[in-house]
Fold:
Amino acid sequence: MAYVVLHVAVSVDGATKGFEPDVGRFYGLAATWREDVTLAGADTILAQEQALREATNPPGPRPDGPLLAVTDRRGRVPEWMFEALRNAGYWRDAVPVRDELPSVIAGFGDAVVRVDSGGALNGALLRGGLVNEISLLVHPCVVGAAPRWYGDPPPPPLALEPLERAADWLRYRVV
Structure:
């Protein structure tokens, strides 16, 4: 079964939007898992549209990089964006996935799957009991009314075992 890690940049109050995340630190920590697959939601990818349009001279696919799988059941992400993501220099390929999440996760076999998404996908994975680890990079701000990393409705109560603690990085195993 795949090992699924939610790695999320959050404010102190758990928001995923309304602040500027430390992108360098976030992706530096993401390398911790050496993922085989990056799983992202369609909304997360669509939020990158402007940056993808403005990219000049992208490096092309990274043969040893992870696969980017985008949950896109309604087909909202246009093909040009998948091509741009393939060429961004991080992933070996970028593909849409339109199956139910348990089938998607099962289809990854023994892969390490790092989820790079917001509350909707994170919450669905948590509610489905599909998460092995939660990693939160906490930013020193309070946002207030903004989407939370665990989605809506919130997941059921979860027991967590600390794996690592830093002043701004919390990492837990779901037990």
